[in-house]
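Lab notes, practical 5.
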Amino acid sequence: MTPDAQTDPATWQRLIESLRADAPVKNGEGLGSLSSGLQRPECVLTHSSGHVFVSDLRGGVSKIQPNGATSLIGGQTLPDSVRLLPNGFAMRSDGSFLVANLGEQGGVWSIAPDGDASPWLTEVDGQTIHRVNFVVNDQQGRVWACISATDGSDAYPLRTATGYIVLCDAAGARVVADGLHYTNECRVSADGEFLYVNETFGRRLSRFRMGPHGELTAKETVATFCNGDFPDGLALDEEGGAWVVCVGSNRVYRVAPDGTKLTVIDDSVTATAQVLEAAFVAGTLNRPQLSAARGHRLHNVTSIAFGGADLRTAYMGCLAGDTLATFRSPVAGVKPVHWSWP
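Output from the prediction step:
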């Protein structure tokens, strides 16, 4: 399906109604779940095999089989000076993973198929890379890494924009965008013309026009957020829509190609959203406070990925739960680069 062929409004409304808190799960519709016992499954990757991969608090990546059984890749003992806290991660063609390390050691780490972990990217332009939020690869074999801020402390830099994006390709690693207001997940558009990125405390979805060598120019705001929303997870669909998951508020939006914002899920707890909003305005919002916020049914969702044979099953990662929330989408997600890799 091309971006010119858009799903009709009635179909979107049926999806929204099926995901309401009082809607039953029936005939494959509604809010479901996958697996159990997961540990901080913040980020999700899907694969054509039916396996689903999630980041794991124990220092690795958990592989979820179609029957729900899980196994941990990585998590071996590291030196006392290193804490590998996987956040975003990317699959590699050799079966390894690149992991954004949210631990104090920072950097991007490689986890081999046998679980062995080693640093992959620790500095750029002569500067140490601290806590890394997200990492993703693209169709050209390049790797994009998002560093939220130069200050990686738990006291969020709410008033300063020091986030940046690193591009790693055959020419090496280099900063291609900076001055971002807490860089979170990023995605390359299906046509390779744009890089979309969430700026969590800028409370906006932005995009850059992308040059042939990864140059990022002409930054523009695609959508803005407020009222306890802090954009975190990001996925693109085959109709040109951008799906944005807001940490804390447990809201999920779809932003249409024309910038129209549709609330697909609103699982916010009013009191919690108000507390987060007040703390943000006062400049006191911190990592533990935001990480602990739960919705009525969702456990602080942070990411979204489309999988299943038709790429229409949405899987949502979270910070405060041990399972993945799922639902069926009327439109397929963009096929991941790694979709058919062994």
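Observations recorded by the TA: Helices lie at 9-18, 270-282, 287-291. The chain has three helices and 26 strands.
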